[in-house]
Amino acid sequence: MENLIGKKVIIRGDRSGVFFGTLVARVEREVTLNNCRRIWYWEGAASISQLASEGTQKPGNCKFTVTVDSIVILDTIEIIPCTDKAIKSIEGVKVWKIQ
């Protein structure tokens, strides 16, 4: 898992949800991500595994939040490295927020 430090990943928390960002630290289930977006809702991928490997085929239907500089997730149960294709797709999704 140490080889993922500095890489863009998707994290699934037990209760906190799904996140995309750069992995900067991990201690047991506690993970720190930089430049992080919460993936609140997605379409165009069957699972977060497909999202991490292929991105979304329907970026206009996704709800990915604003980017925060840093976040600590305390309940991590999955860490999935993202491919370059997925990173480009995820980063291309328009920010979902209340105006």
Give the SSE map.
Elements: E1 8-13, E2 18-27, E3 30-41, H1 48-54, E4 63-64, E5 68-73, E6 76-81, H2 84-91
Antiparallel strand pairs: 1-2, 1-6, 2-3, 3-4, 3-5
Summarize the entry for a quick read:
The chain is α+β, with helices and mostly antiparallel strands and 99 residues long. Helices cover 15% and strands 42% of the residues.
Walk me through what this model shows.
With 99 residues, this protein is α+β, with helices and mostly antiparallel strands. The protein has a single domain (2-91), classed as SH3 type barrels, CATH 2.30.30. Helices cover 15% and strands 42% of the residues. The protein has 2 helices and 6 strands. It has helices at 48-54, 84-91; strands at residues 8-13, 18-27, 30-41, 63-64, 68-73, 76-81. Strands 1, 2, 3, 4, 5 and 6 form a 6-stranded antiparallel beta sheet that branches. Strand 1 and strand 2 (18-27) form a beta hairpin. Helix 1 (48-54) crosses helix 2 (84-91). The N and C termini lie far apart (38 Å). The model has no long low-confidence stretch (mean pLDDT 97).
Q: How many beta strands in the DSSP annotation?
A: 6
The level of helicity is 10-25%
Major beta sheet summary: 6 strands, antiparallel
Distance between the termini: 38 Å
CATH class value: Mainly Beta
The dominant shape is globular
Estimate the strand proportion: 35-45%
Spans of at least 5 consecutive residues with low confidence: none
**Overall CATH architecture:** Roll
Radius of gyration based on Cα positions? 12 Å
**CATH topology, anyone?**
SH3 type barrels
- Number of helix segments? 2
How does the helix and strand content classify structurally?
A: alpha+beta
Number of domains: 1
Q: What is the ordering of alpha helices and beta strands?
A: EEEHEEEH
Return the average pLDDT rounded to an integer. 97
